[in-house]
Specification:
With about 180 residues, the chain is of the alpha+beta class. It has 2 domains: about 5-50 and about 130-175, 2-Layer Sandwich (Alpha-Beta Plaits); about 55-120, no CATH class. It is built from 5 helices and 4 strands. Strands 2-3-1-4 form a 4-stranded antiparallel beta sheet, with helices on one face. The longest helix has 27 residues, at about 55-80. The chain is elongated.
């Protein structure tokens, strides 16, 4: 008995062919597809239907929370907890609080972005079925791959294989989960 099918992976010889294949698969109604390339290809993210990922929003929220928290901490500590008269300045000397809060906002944004990236990419993921594709190690050197998942509502093994063959794929592989 064979393992359940994860999908079909097609290998292409050039980035233009991968981009065209992704656009064509998207036009044919496939929604669960992913492309692998050794370098960024302009328009490929739109072609596979990549959506807004939320990392910029998480970074903004992290920056605001970190800066606001430090600013509040500085205000509480110098105005209420330890109100020292230093050089005749007021206890609430806000210009002195701005620069540290700005620096901490960068730290908060970076941490929030890193955590959001891990969560949204479902990392750490030590195994992915697409790694079982023959010659997939070329995806980091000179290979261009398009994967159409079997969980896609449009997926039919023969029809999907015919589509990929019609798009000039040099190799089509079935990959198991």
């Amino acid at each position: 008995m064979s393992a359940p099918l994860y999908g079909l992976v097609a290998e292409f010889t050039a980035p233009e062919r991968l981009l065209e294949a992704a656009r064509r698969a998207r036009l044919d109604g496939y929604r669960k597809l992913d492309a692998y390339s050794p370098f960024p290809i302009e328009g490929l993210a739109d072609a596979v239907g990549q959506r807004f990922n939320g990392i910029p929003v998480a970074m903004l929220v992290g920056a605001i929370l970190a800066a606001g928290s430090l600013y509040l901490f500085e205000t509480i500590s110098s105005v209420w907890s330890y109100p020292f008269n230093i050089g005749g300045r007021p206890h609430f000397s806000w210009p002195a609080f701005v620069l540290p809060a700005l620096e901490v906002s960068f730290l908060g944004a970076g941490l929030a972005g890193f955590i959001a990236m891990l969560i949204l990419n479902r990392l750490p993921k030590y195994y992915h079925p697409v790694f079982n594709t023959p010659h997939f190690d070329r995806a980091s050197r000179d290979g261009f791959f398009l994967c159409i998942e079997a969980t896609d509502p449009q997926f039919d093994l023969e029809r999907t294989r015919q589509l990929l063959e019609g798009l000039a794929a040099i190799r089509i592989s079935e990959i198991e989960r």
